[in-house]
Design a protein that fits this description.
It is a single chain. This protein is of the alpha/beta class. The chain has two domains: 186 residues, no CATH class; 151 residues, Rossmann fold, CATH 3.40.50. Helix content is 30%, strand content 24%. It has ten helices and 15 strands. The strands form three sheets. A six-stranded parallel beta sheet has the order 12-11-10-13-14-15, with helices on both faces. A five-stranded antiparallel beta sheet has the order 3-2-1-5-4. Helix 5 packs across helix 10 and helix 7 packs across helix 8. The protein is elongated, with a radius of gyration of 23 Å.
Amino acid sequence: MRRELPEMIALAERLLASDIPGTLATLFSARGSTYRSLGSMMVSLPGVHAGGISGGCLEEYVARAGERSTRDNPASMLSFSTHPDSDDDVPVLGCGGAINVLVERLTQDHVAWLKQIAAVYEADDAALLGIVVTRSADRIAVSRAWLPQSDGRALDAPAVKRLCATVTLDGRSRHLSMGSGREILVHHIPSLTRLVIIGAGNDAQPLCELGFTMGWHVTVVDRRARLATALRFPRAEVVTTGEWDEVLPRLDVSSRTAVVLMTHSLYDDARALSFLSSHECAYIGALGPAHRRRWLLDEVSAQGTALPPSCQERLRGPVGLDLGDRSPNGIAVAIAAEILSSINGRSAQPLSDLRDDPRSTLSVKCTTSQI
């Protein structure tokens, strides 16, 4: 979503400036498996869209049907399931689930909300956005508010407050029906995931590329100016070089920061690890075999830093999951996969091994659809 929002905002502004009727679609509720998570959004008009609310099977249909349904009403709700009526052209979901998509006629207020959401995705603190839908006989009313702010009505309900606590704990958006024609989607917007690559060698380049495609904020740092350049790392949002005492204190490190030490120098990796010992990173990994991890810890001690036990326990070495591919690209995938499992609190087991686990529906995403 982080990478999609600038495109969504740009398209929305173009449509409004040209007085072209566009729509904002939001994946509002779901039952069973879905490709996208609740809160996923799309700005569109027939034939053009930015963002997405499915794996690609619904976007054009939602753009066309949404444009028609919002000509006379500011909002509508489109429903999709595995078993639609056979006498219409509603797409079939191949994931076996059912979803409701909120479609609204695009306004300047929506652009303002999209910009606020984009700002949250760039911040180091998560946020909750409440989207309340109220249905009457002939129309749908929609309101939005940042939680725990209150609108004095729906968002004050004890059930909503309990839902917000659950969403914050799980880090996952949830929908709730409140009765009397009212529903709420509590959209969880995660804090920014940062990837800090210590070392600007050739093997750092595919990891930087992969981090970018994941929507992470990527920083590359090295004291070797000939390697740490924007030309070599065009996907990095920050490329910095200098002596460690200068560059390390300038790093932004949060609870969702993953750091990979790959300078190929025990001395340099140890300097960085010493700095990180006072920060609660989500992930710290060191490139190299298992014995190099021991050497690295010994080097940190030799440099006069006493690593707390928590930092030593968090240090992954060898870095990455065992995927069996030792190419630079394969290693990058292995590292990124381990970072994802660590940040999301997952086991990194094959999803097929979890199919009998009742909790697996929380993590399994269908990747096939049909029309």
